[in-house]
């Protein structure tokens, strides 16, 4: 897998106020194999000590940007990952992973933006393709919710148009129509919420990246954070986001270009 870490200030981060304040981004790539070897290391981020696997790092470098070329990244040869059931949106599964930087990475001469040394954590969606394909072959909740949403939307728009055409200021029928319109608006909002939840459980293929042998898909995008100890407290501070790609899905150069384009459109 290619993991492109896009480091920069994000909404909700607990990083220091000056960190990434300029809006610049730092992008580095890690090429890694998600092995089946058990991980004999305790990691709080994995929500339990069992089930972790070894992540083998093959290459790591800062992506070229502007006049600055590719720079190597010092990272430990092994990290870890674990599939955690039910921790994603609407009870979906996620992959939690980490790589361990041996030194901090700075964005060129810009000292305000950096990725700290130590373990850098990533999270993305995990979808076994057998069950995912079964959902695609069956009439899905997402399709049913979409049909219901569009039907309610049409009803709401018809009622809204009727209200605008009715010039009466005080009329019992118009008051009843206003109540019906209000109820329909609430129904539309509820249906939109269910549709959004269904889309999280059944993402589009374009939002996924297939594994080399096609048995597993990971979400194309994920979150990145670091661990910070404050006395007895343990905090995870948002560092940015990441994009994933499977090396052998298509031509390696094309996959690389897709990732870079996504980060620098």
Describe this structure in words.
The protein is α+β, with helices and mostly antiparallel strands. It folds into 2 domains: 2-129 and 204-263, no CATH class; 141-201. It has 4 helices and 13 strands. Residues 249-265 have low confidence and may be disordered.
How would you concisely characterize the structure shown here?
With 265 residues, the protein is an alpha+beta fold. Helix content is 29%, strand content 37%.
Structure keywords:
single chain; 265 residues; alpha+beta; 2 domains; 8-stranded antiparallel barrel; two-stranded antiparallel sheet; 4 helices; 13 strands; 29% helix; elongated
Rg, alpha carbons: 23 Å
Give the number of helices.
4
Secondary-structure-based class equals alpha+beta
Helix content: 25-40%
Question: How much strand?
Answer: 35-45%
- Largest sheet, spatial ordering of strands: 1-2-3-5-6-9-12-13
| Secondary-structure element order, N to C | EEEEEEEEEHHHEEEEH
Secondary structure blueprint with pairings:
Layout (H helix, E strand, L loop, with lengths): L1 E6 L18 E13 L14 E10 L8 E2 L5 E7 L8 E9 L3 E3 L2 E6 L2 E11 H9 L3 H25 L6 H30 L6 E3 L5 E4 L1 E10 L2 E13 L6 H12 L2
Antiparallel strand pairs: 1-2, 1-13, 2-3, 3-4, 3-5, 5-6, 6-9, 7-8, 9-11, 9-12, 10-11, 12-13
Helix pairs in contact: 2-3
